[in-house]
Write a structure and sequence with these properties.
248 residues; alpha/beta; seven-stranded parallel β-sheet; 44% helix; binds NADP nicotinamide-adenine-dinucleotide phosphate
């Protein structure tokens, strides 16, 4: 049984072995949260994030599970609760996501389903599980990482735009259910951010379409998330904040 400091605030960041999730995990650890790093398969990358946070004097642990599997989510959460008696998550960042781009006429059923399961269904199954303790504590912060693609719609991303737009709708609806319980629910909609997900894109061409003229950095998204989960952001809920260099 892990020794749990009941005053410690726990933050679960899905998909935090790499990219935007990693930057959020590192930032929340610096903000004083005990960070739970979720990922699907990349053990080496997840270990790197964990070691970096620990070396900087922060608190963190790994929690490997596939966000597309309700059973895996339930098992991981049950095991975490069993080893952290009396603790719960104050902060949930639904960040894990994938894209499987292609024009809709050529889109395979799997490309639709995989994107829906990872970007949208995961929100439902995981958030539902973590909500009860937040409601009892009358405090909580949920941030859903959507995309400018869900705000404007992008060609070649009918699956991804649909999932991310649905996440924005879910954010608005859930925020109204939870507002009286002092739990805020917001969405962050990045544009082009330099991560593995955008690594094969032609930045020199695409940056011409971005008013600020460059891709964003994961740390810039993390700074926004850090503010949204802070006490100072208690009056902001149900919002989608674009962080896209002027796109949208
Ligand atoms: P990334 O670099 O490709 O990293 C994806 C992360 O999600 C990894 O940690 C990966 O874990 C994890 N993951 C993927 N599928 C998972 C699953 N089924 N279960 C658990 N973890 C899973 O992506 P990113 O660019 O940081 O994107 C993060 C979020 O921002 C996504 O929701 C994405 O849609 C959104 N977004 C990104 C951009 C952008 O330009 N990069 C723009 C708008 C929105 P493993 O390491 O184990 O594979």
């Amino acid at each position: 049984m892990m020794v749990v400091n009941n005053k410690m605030r726990y933050a679960l960041v899905t998909g935090s072995s790499r990219g935007i999730g990693r930057a959020i995990a590192e930032r929340l650890a610096r903000d004083g949260y005990s960070v739970v790093i979720n990922y699907k398969s990349n053990d080496t990358a997840a270990q790197e994030v964990l070691q970096k946070i620990l070396q900087e004097g922060g608190q963190a642990e790994l929690l490997k599970f596939d966000v597309t599997s309700p059973t895996a989510i339930q098992e991981a959460y049950t095991n975490w609760c069993a080893t952290h008696e009396g603790a719960h998550f104050d902060v949930l960042i639904n960040n894990a996501g994938i894209r499987r781009d292609g024009l809709m006429v050529f889109m395979e059923d799997n490309d639709w389903a995989d994107v829906m399961h990872t970007n949208l269904d995961s929100f439902f199954y995981l958030t539902k599980l973590l909500l009860n303790p937040m409601i009892r504590a009358r405090r909580g912060r949920i941030v859903n990482i959507t995309s400018i693609s869900g705000v404007t719609g992008l060609p070649g991303q009918v699956n991804y735009s649909s999932a991310k737009a649905a996440l924005i709708g879910a954010t608005k609806a859930l925020s109204k259910e939870l507002a009286a319980r002092k739990i805020t629910v917001n969405a962050v909609a990045p544009g082009f951010i330099a991560t593995d997900m955008t690594a094969e894109l032609d930045e020199s061409e695409l940056k011409k379409t971005i008013p600020i003229g460059r891709f964003g950095q994961p740390e810039e998204v993390a700074a926004l998330v850090s503010f949204l989960v802070s006490d100072e952001a208690a009056y902001i809920t149900g919002q989608t904040i674009n962080i896209a260099g002027g796109i949208g």
